[in-house]
Design goal:
Keywords: Magnesium, Metal-binding, Transferase. With about 325 residues, this protein is mainly α. It contains 16 helices and two strands.
Length: about 325
C-alpha cells in the first residue's frame, strides 16, 4: 500500500463527501469567475490539509457535517491566499503551472481571491460553531500578518532564524494548526485535546515549510518552481540563514544583502546556493525539520494504536519525504 492510500484509508468515504461539498461550493453563474475557478481546480493537489482535518476529527469520533464545512472553509481560505500571494509576489508560476495572474490578470486574480475568501467564510458559518468561525477568522489575520512580516524582513539587514520561524508560524504552521484545531472543535472535544490537536498541526506545518524551502536549492521540474525562486523574491530561508550566521563569510553576506535588496544577479544567487550546500545548510535544515517531526511523533505516541494514528504517522512521513 502506498503512503497516500494508507493516509486516506480511515476516511475514504468522508473524503468523497468533502470533494462533493468543495466542488459544489465553487459553482458560479458568472462566466469569467467560472473559467478562473475551473483553471484553479485543474491544479488541485492531494488535498493534504482537508485530509488532515478529517483524520484528526476521526481520531476523536465520527466525522460530522461541521467537520466537512470546516475542511471546505480552510481549503478555500488557503486557495484564496495562494491566488493573492502570486499577485503580491508577481509570480508567474505555481507548482509547474502558470499562476492565475499570469493566465488572466491581477485584477481578476484579486477579485477571484476575494470571492474564494467570502465563500470560505460562508462555510465557516455553516459549521454553526463559534469556535470554528474564530479559528478561520484568526487564520486570515495570521496569513496576512505573516506576509507583511516577510515583506518587512526583506529590508532588515540581519539574518535571523527567529524571524524566519515567526514568519512560517504565521503562515504555513498557522494553516495546519487551524486545520487540526477546527477538526477538534467540529467533534466537540475538550480543551486539552483541542490544544493537543493544534500543537500537532503546528509541528506538521513547520516540517512542511522547511521541506518546501529545501526544494528551492535544487533544480527539478517535478517540484514546479525554478531553483532560487525564493531568493529572487528577496527571501532567505533556513539553509542560507544557517550558513550566513555560521561562516560569517564577508563576500557571501554581501551577496545576501543584495538578494534582500533585489539587486543580486542570477550568478550571485547561484553562488549563495552553492555556498549553502557546501557548508551544511541543507543538512542543518533537514536536522531541524526532523526535530519537529519527532515532536509530532512524540505527541502521536501518547495515543492508543489505531488505523488513524498510523495514517497520521504516515502523513508526517509523507510531508518530510515528499519530492515536490
Amino acid at each position: 500500500m502506498d503512503s497516500i492510500t494508507c493516509i486516506k484509508k480511515p476516511i475514504t468515504t468522508e473524503l468523497e463527501d468533502f470533494r462533493d461539498l468543495f466542488d459544489s461550493s465553487l459553482s458560479s453563474s458568472n462566466a469569467l469567475l467560472d473559467s478562473v475557478i475551473a483553471y484553479i481546480r485543474q491544479r488541485n493537489g492531494k488535498m493534504m490539509r482537508p485530509i488532515l482535518v478529517l483524520l484528526v476529527a476521526r481520531l476523536y469520533g465520527e466525522i460530522r457535517p461541521s467537520t466537512l464545512h470546516a475542511a471546505v472553509s480552510l481549503e478555500l481560505l488557503h486557495t484564496a491566499s495562494l491566488v493573492h500571494d502570486d499577485v503580491v509576489d508577481e509570480s508567474t508560476e505555481r507548482r509547474g503551472q502558470l499562476s492565475v495572474n499570469a493566465v488572466f490578470n491581477n485584477k481578476v486574480s484579486v477579485l477571484t481571491g476575494d470571492y474564494l475568501l467570502a465563500t470560505s467564510l460562508v462555510h465557516a458559518g455553516l459549521t454553526k460553531s463559534h469556535d470554528i468561525i474564530q479559528v478561520v477568522s484568526s487564520l486570515g489575520q495570521d496569513l496576512a500578518e505573516g506576509e507583511l512580516l516577510q515583506l518587512s524582513n526583506v529590508s532588515n539587514h540581519s539574518f535571523s532564524e527567529k524571524v524566519y520561524f515567526d514568519v512560517i508560524r504565521k503562515k504555513t504552521a498557522a494553516l495546519f494548526a487551524a486545520c487540526t484545531k477546527a477538526a477538534a472543535y467540529s467533534v466537540e472535544v475538550g480543551e486539552e485535546d483541542t490544544e493537543f490537536a493544534r500543537l500537532l498541526g503546528e509541528y506538521i506545518g513547520i516540517c512542511f515549510q522547511i521541506k518546501d524551502d529545501i526544494f528551492d536549492y535544487f533544480d527539478s521540474k517535478e517540484i514546479g518552481k525554478p531553483t532560487g525562486n525564493d531568493m529572487l523574491e528577496g527571501k532567505l530561508t533556513l539553509p542560507a540563514l544557517y550558513v550566513l550566521n555560521a561562516t560569517q563569510d564577508a563576500r557571501i553576506r554581501e551577496i545576501a544583502f543584495k538578494i534582500k535588496e533585489g539587486t543580486a544577479s542570477m550568478e550571485e544567487i547561484a553562488c549563495l546556493i552553492s555556498f549553502t550546500k557546501e557548508n551544511g545548510g541543507i543538512e542543518y535544515a533537514i536536522q531541524t525539520m526532523n526535530a519537529y517531526k519527532q515532536k509530532a511523533l512524540d505527541l502521536l505516541s501518547i495515543l492508543p494504536d489505531s488505523e488513524v494514528r498510523v495514517a497520521l504517522e504516515t502523513y508526517l512521513d509523507y510531508v518530510v519525504d515528499r519530492e515536490k
